[in-house]
Amino acid sequence: MAYRYGEYHDGPDPLAPPYDVRAALDEMGDAILSGSTPVHALRDLLKRGLPGAQDRRGLDDMLREVRRRRRDLRERGRLDGTLEKARALLDKAIGQERAELFPDPSDEARMREAGLDALPDDTASAIQELSTYDWRSGAARQTFEELRGLLRREVLDAQFRGLRDALANPDPEAMERVRQMMADLNDMLDRDAQGRHTPADFAAFMDKYGDLFPEKPRNLEELVDILARRAAATQRMLASMTPRQREELSNLINQTLEQAGLSDQMRRLGEALYARRPDLAWNAPERLTGEEPLGMGDAVTALEELADLTQLETALRQDYPGARLDDVDEAAVRRALGRSAVDDLEALKRIERELEEQGYLLRRRGKLELTPKAVRRLGETALRRVFSSLDAGRRGDHDQHDAGSAGELTGSSRPWRFGDEQPIDVVRTLVNGVRRGGVGPGGGAGAAVRLSVDDFEVAETERRTAAAVCLLVDLSYSMALRGTWAAAKQTALALQALVASKFPQDAVQIIGFSNYARVLQPDELAGLDWDMVQGTNLHHALLIAGRHLDRHPDFEPVVLVVTDGEPTAHLMRNGRSAFEWPPSHETLELTLAEIDKMTRRRATINVFMLAADDRLKEFVDEVARRNGGRVFSPSAERLGEYVVSDFLRLRRAR
C-alpha cells in the first residue's frame, strides 16, 4: 500500500489545536471594559476575526468579498441581451426573405414585400405575425427557426437552469419530456400542499428527471427553493427593464410558452412557488451597468446571485436585533464565496457556541449576558492591565503564581483535618509515612513511600487582619459625558478580582450611586451601564457603606470613592431622592454628616476625583479635612492603577 503526504485541502486542518475561547473572551473584554455591551463586543470580535488565527476570515473580510462580487455582477452586462439578439435574428430573416423576393417581378412578391413592410415595430408582435408566414427563402425560414429555438431555450433556462443544454438540439420527444416533467412537478407540489407527498415521490421524480436539475436537490424543499429563487429573479429582471422592454419580453415569453404547450403548467408552477416563498424579492428592480448584452438565462442567473449576495450581506452585517451567526445561510456562503468561507464561518460559530457552552455567555430572553465565570475572567484581565502599569521595582511583584495561604506561617504544624485550607507540610508528612513503616519493597534509596490520611500534616498560620472594603462608584450621566465611565467600571472589576484572589478573607462591597445608590453584584459589573438620570447621591451611598462596615465590626474599614462631581442629591426621610443643582445646603450637610460617621468608625475615606470643578475641589478638601483621608486626581487611564495601589497601601499599613 502506498502513502502520499501533502498539504491538507479538504476543509479545516483536523490536527490543528483547538481554539482557546478564553482568548476570545479576553478580546471581548477589552471592548466590554471600555464600555461596550456583551452583544456588541461579541459582534465586533466576530467581525474582526479570531485573534491569533490569521488564516481565518472574519465577518468584515467576508463582507468585503461579497460587496466586491456584487459590484462585479452589476458591471457584468445588460439585461436586454435576449431582446437584442431576437431583433437581430428577426431583421436577418426579413432581409433574407426580401433578397429572395426582390428578383421576382410577380404581384405576389410585391404583396409579400408590402406585408413585411407593415410588420409592427414591437419584436414580439412581429414574431407573432410571422409565425404563420410561408417563407419563400429557405435561409430565412432557417433563421426564423433559429430565433424561435433561441427564445425557447432562453425562456425555459430562465426557469430551469438545466434546460438550455437539453434543448440545444430539440426534438419533439425532448419537448414532450419537458412538458411531462412540468406536469409531474406541479402534481407533486399539489400533493405536498395536501399533505400527501412522501420522500419516495421525490426520489421517483429525480430518478426520472434528475438530469434536468444540475443543482441535484436532496428533497422537495431544496427543489422549491431553487425554482423559487430563479422565478423571483426572472420577475426582478422584468421589473428592472424599461416599460417598452418589459412589454416586449413579456410578450415573447408568453408566445414561446404558448407555442411550446407549457403556458398553463408554467402559470401553475409560478403560483405555487410564490405561495411557498412570498418572502423573496419578486418585483424589486436591480440595475446592471455593464455593456455586454446578457441572454435571458444569464441575466436571470446574475440577478439570482445578486439577490443571494444581498441577503448574505444583511446576515453578515449582524446589525439587527437578536442577530446570530446561525442566521447566516451556509449554502449561500458556499455559492458566493466557496468552501473555505464555510469553514471560516463554522470557526466563528464554534467560538460563539463554545462561549455559551463553556459557561461564559448566557442568552436570556433574547439578550446576551456575561456569566459570573466570565466576569471573574474579565476581572483578572482588568487586574493584569492595572498591574502591568505599576512600577514593579517600587511596588513589588504582584503577579505571583505560587500557592499561598490565608495567613502568615508560624513554623509549627498539626495533623490535617477535613476542610483544612492551610498548605501541606510535605517534609513532616513524608517523615510520618516513613515512621509508620510505609516504605515500599526494598527499603533502599528511591523506594516509594506509601502515605495514609493520618500521615498528613498542615502548616499552621496566623490569621491576617481582614478588611471591610467599600468602593463607591459614581454612575451618573456625567461620567459617560466625560468619558470616565469605562475606566470606573474597569477599576471596580479589578478591585473585585484583587480582593477575591489575594485577600479572600476581606469583605468587599461595590456601591454604585446616581440619584439613588445600590449594591452592585460581581456578575453585573461587566455589563453595567451608566444611569441617564440627574443626581449624585453620595449621601445614600455612604449610608449603604456604613451598614456594610457595621456588619463587620472586627474588620479594618476601607472606603474608596470614585466620582466626577460634588453631591447634588440626598435621601429624604420618606425614602425618596431630592435633587438640586447647585447643591443645596441640606444635601451637603447630610453628606458631610455621613462622612463624620465614617470617621467615628475609624474608616479612612480616599476620594478619586475625575474632574477639576471648583465646587468638587472644595467639597473633597472638606472631606479630607474632616476625615483625614487623601484626595487623588488621576486621569481616567490611570484610575485603576491609583485605586488598586491605594488599596494595597492601606492593606500593608494594616
Automatic annotation (TrEMBL):
Residues 393-415 are annotated as: Disordered. InterPro entries: VWF_A, vWFA_dom_sf. Residues 393-402 have a biased composition (Basic and acidic residues). Residues 466-649 form the VWFA domain. This is VWFA domain-containing protein.
